[in-house]
Amino acid sequence: MAVKKSNFDINKYQIQNTLQKIKVEIPDTGDAFEVSVKQLSWSQRNQLVSKCLEWQKDGQTNFNGDLYVKESLKEMIVEAPWGRTTESFLSSIDARLGAALESLVPKAYGDEDGIDPTNVKKG
Predict the structure, then answer these.
(1) For residues 118 and 109, what is the distance between their CA atoms, to the nearest angstrom?
(2) 6, 16, 52, 83: which sits with the fewest CB atoms below 10 Å from its CB?
(3) Alpha-carbon Rg for the chain in angstroms
(4) Quick check: is 62 in a domain?
């Protein structure tokens, strides 16, 4: 019995080059606004994760989550009520707005990725 093979559709696995409008809500205040974001590619995310790994003299690694979130937001947010998303803007906001924006950032590590930062070896 012959098995019918389906054609592989690469389009299902490529990021969209279109902007996505996302409504962001701040739970503590009830304020809401829209931002336009672009999707990070797999490669861009990996580059940001690598940039945020800090190697210690003993060969251990530390992950700088603050840097990862800020760099991701600067890369992803294209349009926002405050204009360009810059380092100075991100350093000026409080935890309520920061947490709302952080929800836009893809996880650096997680079960779906199968990566454990404590197992990263210097190569």
Answers:
(1) 11
(2) 6
(3) 18
(4) yes
Contact at 8 Å (CB) between 77 and 37? yes
Strand order in the sheet with 20-25: 20-25, 32-37, 77-79
Instruction: Report the alpha-carbon angle 10-77-79, nearest 5.
Output: 115
Query: Is 81 part of a structural domain of the chain?
Result: yes
Domain count, the chain: 1
Q: Cα separation of 18 and 79, whole Å?
A: 13
Instruction: Tell whether 56 is covered by a domain.
Output: yes
Q: Is residue 12 assigned to a domain?
A: no
End-to-end CA distance of the chain: 48
Instruction: Tell me which residue range forms the domain holding 76.
Output: 28-106
Write the pLDDT tens digit of every residue in 17-45: 889 999 999 999 999 999 999 999 999 99
pLDDT of 39-54, one tens digit each?
Answer: 999 999 999 999 999 9
Q: What pLDDT is stored for residue 110 in this prediction?
A: 63
- What predicted TM-score, i.e. pTM, was given to this entire model? 0.79
Q: What is the pLDDT of residue 18?
A: 86
